Amino acid sequence: MAGIGFELDNILRRDTYSSLVHAYAYAIVISSGPWLFSIAGIFIITLVSKIPGADNFWFVQFRTLVVYLISISLVTSSVMQYAFSRFIADRFYEKKLEVVRPNYNGACLVIIIFSSIVALLFVYEFLPGVSIFTKIYTFLSLVSLSCVWLATISLSGLRAYKQVSISFLIAYVFMAFICYLLRDFLLNGLMLGFLLGQILLFAMLSYTIYTQYHSTEKLDFSFTKHTEPMIWLVLAGLFYNMAIWADKYLFWYTSPSKINVIGHLNASLIYDTPVFLATLTSVFSMAFFFLHLETTYMDHYKRLFQKVSGGGTLSEIYHSHNMLVSTSRYIIISVLKIQGVLLLMGIFLGYAFLLYLKIDPYYIYILNVLVLALTLNVVYWATIDLLFHLDKYKTTCCLHGLFLVSNIVFTDISIRLNIFYYGYGLAASLFVSSLTALICLHFAYKNLEYNTFV
Amino acid sequence: MTKRAFPKSDNVDILLLLEGTYPFVSGGVSSWAYTLMLSMPQFRFGVVFLGGSESLYDEPKYPFPDNLVYLDDFYLFPEFERPHRPAFLKEKYYFYDEITQLHSDCLDPFKIDSEKTIGDIERLIFSENGISEQDFWYSRQSWDYTVEKYKEKCSDISFIDYFWTVRGLHAPLWRLFDISKKVPVPKLYHSASTGYAGMLGSILSRKHDKPFILTEHGIYTKERRIDLLQRNWLEDYYIREAHTEYINDRWITLFEILARISYSAADPIISLFGAYRDRQIDDGAPKNKTIIVPNGVDVDKFAACEHHSHDLTKPVIAMVGRVVKIKDIKTFIRCMAVVIQKMPDAIGWIVGPEETEPDYVEECHELIRILKLEKNIHLMGTQKMENILKKIDLLVLSSISEGQPLVVLEAFAAGIPTVLTDVGACRELVYGANDEDAKLGQAGEVLPISSPGKLADAILSLLTDPNFYQSAAKAAKARANTYYALNDITNIYKDLYLEKIEEAN
Known about the structure:
Oligomer: heterodimer
Number of helices of chain A: 15
Helix content of chain B: 40-55%
Order of helices and strands of chain A: HHHHHHHHHEEHHHHHH
Strand content of chain A: under 5%
Largest sheet of chain A: 2 strands, antiparallel
Strand order of the largest sheet of chain A: 1-2
Shape of chain B: globular
Shape of chain A: globular
Strand content of chain B: 5-15%
């Protein structure tokens, strides 16, 4: 299996307009993260299975429940996110592929046990007075979602992006179809469809791992072995996933805009929809970043380390270093430009868009601020990725910690002020975090040789 | 490897500083050190063994005499070579000028002021307030300085090789600092080489104000130069593929500096024979401190091996030494081919260990097969020298490098003439070291290296002329008894020890 960078490179070298579109489409799927894909899938499901003319509040219930499931399962599996994908990627690099399967089994076991506990607590605490079927489906969905994230992480570490994309596509088409068939059962029908879709997805992803990576061992827990970067990776995964949901939870539980949807689950329509729309705008720049990271950047990155370990002179090393820095700068500035265009589009077209979605266009300000926030999010995300390539785990972990704390503090302040400040909390937090991350990246590059050798 | 139980007394008279020899490596210097201890039961000896890395050495090859009261092994290039990284490191920029000055002083080892240099090194490195190993490995200043010097001196060579060479050149200094704090304080230090052992002796003798004697069996800097050219030294640790001339030169410079420091601190500076003494003086040893003390041989033990049944028409000719390139065994085989043409009953023995260079051993077998000499020439492996001397008529050494070969002295004591190449002390041994010595006569022949024809002619002239053979045998025996008797040599060292210890009090 060739690396994704290699494949994307080939596509780009065909050098036609359609090949470029092809490459970007591919990159969008991979980079935007499966969770975004999932939420988009849910919106499509709700659209296809809507019963015209009826009271469709159960749609809101379904959507809210799924968003909660996604956020909780992401945080649950986040302890594994960086650590396990790093473990897998290292073994992939060492070509020790026989350890993949037993460790994947081991990690699945850990995740199933852990997420079952979380799921039990969630169902018990947050869903009082909900039908027993919904409770069962919720419980099982949470466990299978957590497993899906683990499988996705593993396959990304193995660079099997194509299989991941195809599996997600098939599973969500299947899910939409089942939901359509079961729409008469309202919330329970949709939840069952969702559950069956997740199980299918988990099965397909596991099948890929099982068929591609053979092993005589059944179960192995060597991924849990304590190494110094591991602990930072575990914390970094946890902090990041908590940070990206912190502002949403604050809105759901502390803002005046909160509405109770089901059990103790709340939503905040004036915040949730703009956040989702704004996140969609960052898809293109994330894809752009991913594409260039995997091709141009990785080229220079490999060249630099070849120079270092292959006996290059210092001036050759410095030259490769400068190429790497200017590539990084180019990528980040390009990301800003793309987001800038989208921000302008948001300012001019957002009003009409909100009208179309029947959201009070009064909240156009929230959308604009959130598009800005998500622009900074891409910069932050890109900077973090570059720091990861320089093995700055501790720094990354601290930055995610800063993002988490600042997001809680600033969002809380924005909620306490008034509705005009909604969204500024996330934006301010990401501004501080991405600025700090860029400063860290600057110093990481400045001390690259020192840190490599000394 | 489990740590062995070594004697660990603090009450030591003579502390021997031995680099890569006794007790873990067999060879001339190890035997010398072992014999020295055995023959002087009145002194309590200690041994500091300095090695490369621990895995290179196995179990001790020699027994421990009763008067060996202290032994410890230290390794200068351990496998996990980096020191612990501190969480915080204070930069010591105030050393910058001194370091720069010291490096520029050391650029040309032949111009250094050894006293000043060793003082600088003591202050900068061998001191708790100086530059620590952590400073050297991890400080920003150390990195900047490395880069600065790289740009200044050799910006065209592989940086990673330069970096590790710099680390490798300096890292042992802190090992030596650690060692200097751990070893007991004796009445006298005695090192068997310059290099790291000599450096340790210099530092310790200055620190504790004790006498320091240096005995060189070979010339350390010359041996290291050969090692570097053969690329088998430290290769896996610090020097990688690009083995540039510049990097080799840095190592040579280091060893030259260590030699000059040792020569400056040691008194006396002992060599085995005249040519090495001249070499030491060339390398910076003050002439008035140099003396010659040759190897000694137990003349009575080997005289017992003398036999008078030499049948010179069926001679047994032995080459004794490790079967390695430097002994040039192939020249011996080729010369024997010529001898056997004239004397079909002549037998050639190659006596010595065959483990070091198995490929070379195979090449020798191959050569013997090609020349169809399987019946006449035999590789005997390691043998007891007494047993060999009882059976042979002639000893031949075809080496391209020798010091003062002990086997020649042993053959002399047993009245066996020798045919040698003109290396090391061979000329002195055969013809005499001075006019008086020369009067004892010629104990064989000395010929240029890599000349199998000339070697064969000399062997034949000895074997076909019984008078020459007899006179050579007589001269050999007389020379061994007069100048190389072990008792006399031991007494020289004993007197030297007593005198130096007396002086120090």
